Amino acid sequence: MEAPHPQGEAAAGWVTVEEWRGSSASMLSRTAVLTASASSLTSRRFGSRWGRIGSRMLGAFVPEGFPGSVTPDYVPFQTWDTLQGLSTYIRAMLSTQALLGAIGVGEQSATVIGATFQWFLRDLTGMLGGILFTFYQGSNLDSNAKMWRLVADFMNDLGMLMDLLSPLFPSSLIVIMCLGSLSRSFTGVASGATRAALTQHFALANNAADISAKEGSQETLATMTGMGLGMLLAHITRGHALSVWVSFLSLTVFHMYANYKAVQSLSLTTLNSERASILLQYFKECSEVLAPKQVSQQEHILPFWSSWRKLIRIKLPHEHVHLGAKASMLTHTDMLEIAKTRSHYENSNYLLLDKEGSVHIFIHKQATPADVLKSFIHGLVLTNLSQNGKSQHAEARRWMDDKYTTFISKLQVKGYSTERLLSHSIVWRAHWLHGQLDEKLE
Question: What is the mean pLDDT of residues 201-221?
Fold first, then answer.
């Protein structure tokens, strides 16, 4: 630090101390300069009082070290996520008002025990639904965080719609209430799980806890704002069914759009089956690796897209690869084929079976996450080579020996996490003896 030398104080000595504010060394601002001599102390402050108060308030909503401590896609995602959350809380007031009216709040004929029992059934259905959803899809949420994020909010919209419909069908009130609660239970599980995955993605400075805490502050602010606007809208539209429905449907359309834009803005660096397939295809064509943002633009994130492809019988390359196949599915012909191609998988903790246009990957019981990733890439290579109807195990093996290490290195340079492949849990594993396999099959 250099500062002007106080005149007349050369013999006595002097010292200058500067005050800087900021949680990151790259994001500091000078707030004060103090200079002391033997006989005096001078100070100079920078910035306004309101500016300092504003920066402190901002610190309650953004992670420490922002923006350097988070990924570039944090701001656009949080912006759209806050807007969709705001619309959710406004609609919640309309749907809750309709639901309370349906169970008899405000009517003399309604009983407390009746309303309590209906509410209990609603909550119980939601709890059971959450457990069942976790049982069937829990292991798939991490690998398809974008898609399940959209699914979660769509199911929430569906639950709110059920609440709004409940007064129109009093004879089926309990059924409609339970269906709405069931729908929202999927939302709670899927939204919470995908939020955890996204928080890990945003954390560049091992600050996932800080990001999660600031996310809570942002959501609380959006909740309070949404509740206030929702109460105002509920008061304005009270007694006007058409206005209620127009407001609800308009906000729902905006909510779905904001969710799509939020998910679309994400550039994830983890590898799932589709991202790995896109990256491999480009690498084979250009010997380079796409940046995360470029891959994000090519991903299919709409929930109904996969179902639509199945109806028209169109499969993407990664959908031809079946990871963690069951050994009990093997026929005698399959076993003979494995014996014939076994030499191409020496010292590998996986085996590939090319069958009917698909590649089935059998994972060894001692395989590591790195082995699983390698087996999937190997399966993609074999799938691409086998499209002409002929088995290409030898050529796929040569590609893996020559190019796989380079491919992984270039992924790491681009910032991708190559420790593992995000996929469904591999429940089925296998064990084989290389030296005795041919003898057993003869």
Answer: 89
Q: Nearest Cα to 273, choosing from 355, 204, 361?
A: 361
Q: Beta strands of 58-161 (E only): which ranges? A: none
pLDDT at 9: 47
The structure tokens 């101390």 sit at 17
Question: Of the given ranges (227-231, 237-241, 379-383), which has the lowest mean pLDDT?
Answer: 237-241
Q: How far is CA 36 from CA 9, 46, 241, in A?
A: 10, 18, 72
Residue type for position 109: S
Are 364 and 371 in contact by the 8 Å Cβ rule? The answer is yes
Contact, 422 vs 137, CB < 8 A?
Answer: no
pLDDT tens digits for range 115-149: 676 767 777 887 888 888 877 776 677 788 898 88
What tokens appear for 136 in the block? 């069937």
Tokens of 435: 């030296």
Q: Are 346 and 373 in contact (CB under 8 A)?
A: no
Q: Which long-range contacts (CB under 8 A, 24 or more apart) does 256-259 make?
A: 256/153, 256/154, 256/157, 258/80, 258/81, 258/83, 258/84, 258/87, 259/80, 259/84, 259/149, 259/150, 259/153
Residue 67 CA to residue 76 CA, distance in Å, equals 12
Q: Which two tokens stand for residue 436?
A: 């005795």
- pLDDT tens column, 292-348: 999 999 998 887 666 665 665 667 888 899 999 999 989 999 998 998 998 899 889
Please give the average per-residue pLDDT across 356-378, as a whole number.
Answer: 94
Question: pLDDT digits over 236-272, tens only?
Answer: 888 888 888 999 999 999 999 999 999 999 999 999 9
Where is 187: in which H helix or E strand? Answer: helix 173-202
CA dist list (Å): 297 to 144, 208, 306: 15, 26, 17
Side-chain half-sphere CA neighbours of 154 within 13 A: 11
Exposure letters 5-38 (e unless 16+ CB within 10 A, then b) = ebeeeeeeeeebeeeeeeeeeeeeeebebebbbe
Residues in the chain: 442
Task: Give pTM, 2 decimals.
Answer: 0.80
Amino acid at 351: L
C-alpha span between 306 and 384 (Å, rounded) = 20
The DSSP secondary structure of 140-154, one letter per residue, reads GTTTTHHHHHHHHHH
Rounded Cα distance, 327 and 343, in Å: 19
